[in-house]
Amino acid sequence: MTNILEVKELKKNYGDFQAVKGVSFDIKEGEIFSLLGPNGAGKTTTISMLSTLYEPTSGDATVAGHSVKKNPMGVRNAIGVVPQDLALYEDLTAKENLIFWGQMYNLSGKSLASRVDEVLEQIGLTDKAKNKVKTFSGGMKRRVNIGVGLLHKPQLLFMDEPTVGIDPQSRRAILDTVKDLNKQGMTVLYTTHYMEEAEELSDRVGIIDHGELIAIGTQKELTKQVGETETLILHVGENEDPSALVSTLKGLPNVLDANVVNNQISVVTPSAKDVLASVVTKANERGIKIHSIDIREPNLEAVFLHLTGRALRD
């Protein structure tokens, strides 16, 4: 397949601070590619450079053959952008917002009216077309925001954390919308700090942290990096201090690693069942009360922990 996006050593500095440290990757036509990383990892800065909002300090990227540095207008014509922050007028209806932004794309007349109706159907808001956006839930507003990015039929859609701060039902609707768009041929660059979103949506995933792209691949390729391991998750109370327990657990046979994040102790092991009894015994000896226990097979969160030594949402 042809690469629609090629990124080469893209960097962004703010004074002495390096927000993005020479990332390189490509996206193939028809692919959903996710940038997965915690808040502050450099995802939004990368999207901002690729969409020509920020000028790179060095490096370059091409979108559909157009350089972000040499031909930013060509890039803008090829992309749609769904930003983290809503770009909507609350006193206008959903349809009026789409008409307004369609005119910004130089659409007009019957072609604009037809395209607005198509987009409303795509985002599942045809029946709410004449309602003012200020009456919408957060999830519905985000769906209108997606619609704005689709109006001019872009070749590549950038979606920057589109499900942040919305309810589970709306989140489900947005994820289904992304998958439907992809089935229709849309190529998507999707940023998220939710491991489960990247797992559900992505053909390939780039793991980014502290401005560095530290791993790229399919989920199968990435999970191989942590080996044939499982993760034992111990949920403890808010008033517990499990840090001393973690040091003890690291010394147990068949425990590869142990960490504490948000009142959860993660124990990486070749076999969770084989170490469960000894882990619980050590917790009891330390007076740590365990509320519940989960066993997880290798996933993207385990990959991130393995590569960075910290959790996605620490």
Topology readout:
Layout: E1 3-14, E2 17-28, E3 32-36, H1 43-50, E4 58-63, E5 66-67, H2 72-78, E6 79-82, H3 94-104, H4 109-122, H5 138-150, E7 156-160, H6 168-183, E8 187-192, H7 195-201, E9 204-209, E10 212-217, H8 219-223, E11 230-236, H9 243-249, E12 257-261, E13 264-269, H10 272-285, E14 290-296, H11 300-308
Helix pairs in contact: 3-4, 5-6
Kindly summarize this structure in a few lines.
The chain is 35% helix and 28% strand. It is built from eleven helices and 14 strands.
List keywords for this structure.
alpha/beta; 6-stranded mixed β-sheet; 4-stranded antiparallel β-sheet; 14 strands; 35% helix
Overview of the molecule:
By secondary structure, the protein is of the alpha/beta class. 35% of the residues lie in helices and 28% in strands. It contains 11 helices and 14 strands. It has a 6-stranded mixed beta sheet, sandwiched between helices. Strands 2-1-4-5 form a 4-stranded antiparallel beta sheet, with helices on one face. Helix 3 packs across helix 4 (109-122). The protein is globular. The protein starts with a strand and ends in a 6-residue tail after the last helix. The model has no long low-confidence stretch (mean pLDDT 91).
